[in-house]
Amino acid sequence: MKEHYLSIEAAATALAQGKLVGIPTETVYGLAANAFDEQAVNAVFVAKNRPHFDPLIVHLKSPEQVEQFCTAIPSIVWTLIEAFWPGPLTLLLPKKPCISDLITAGLPRVAVRMPRHSVAHTLLQQLDFPLVAPSANPFGYISPTTPQHVLDQLGDCIAGVIDGGPCEIGLESTILGIEASHAVIYREGGVSRETLAACLGDCPLQLSSAESKTVIHAPGQLTSHYAPTKPVYFDALARCLRHFNAQSLGTICFREPVPSLPLTYQFVLSPTGDLGTAAQQLFRGLRELDRLPVQAIYAEKFPEVGLGRAINDRLRRASHRL
Ligand code: TXA
Ligand code: MG
Question: What is the average per-residue pLDDT within 8-18?
Answer without folding.
Answer: 98
